[in-house]
Amino acid sequence: MMQLKTKEQIKDFLSKNTKFVNQFYQTSPEDTTLINRLFLIHNNPDTQAFYEDTKKSFGNLTDLKSQLETAFKHIKYYYPDFKEPQIITTFTALDLELMVSDDMIVIPLETFLGPKAKYRPQYPLYLLQRFDKPYIVPSILTILSKKYNAIDPNDHTLLSDMIYYGKSYEFTRAMLPDVADSLVIAYADSNMTKTWNSQDLVWGHFIDNKVLYETNDRIKDKYLGDRPKVFEIGSDCPGRIGQWLGWRIVSRYRTENPSISLIDLMKNSNARDIFEKSKYKGQLED
């Protein structure tokens, strides 16, 4: 798109790519505000230099395409009716982020140049790690997992949310078996190690404070939301610890119940059933 320099060229492109415009920009091809915004982006010398740096960093996208193709093959193995979405790579000058739907995936490449890039998303440092190339495909697969991840709409407990996240990460790991768990959950390697070795303390906090069946959104967000640390547990406890712990429970559930397939797991909306049958109590072994 950056080659489109006039408003007429931009209008013509948008009119020929209605679905892309509707889903990614969430507007119509005739939107003059969008046309004017793209015109300014495409004719800004600094933005053009940023675009060239992005192209140089990503090259011909062979690795990205190969990883997505492999992941889609794995999804089709488990879910034969899966239809590969259209993949679109684009450049938005950090205007928009990754978009994933059933029929289209739009990847703004400049968003994933890494935390040390000259231009990067305006997020705190502890969040910037995931805006790097190795996290693109795991992020896409985790979002795609929503389609298969059954939930109980009447269960509003922290445990239910934890199991939901755990199932989504288990799905992603199954579709990307050669990808490190740290990339799946977007944790630094050091956080993965510390959390694994301290999970008895983490588990003890959840039990002692009786938060597994908490339904208060503010309290739940302390354990599920993005934070630099979960200080209620300790200064070394990373944010989203509830998501990680949910994954541990799901992983233990599959270990304790080897006859349960991934499809069975994803269809199971009973978080308490998964938890109880996991026999998880903070133990290190998998």
TrEMBL record:
Pfam families: GldB_lipo (PF25594)
Xref: InterPro entries: GldB-like
Alphabetic keyword roster: Lipoprotein
This protein's name: Gliding motility lipoprotein GldB
Highest taxon listed in the record's lineage: Bacteria
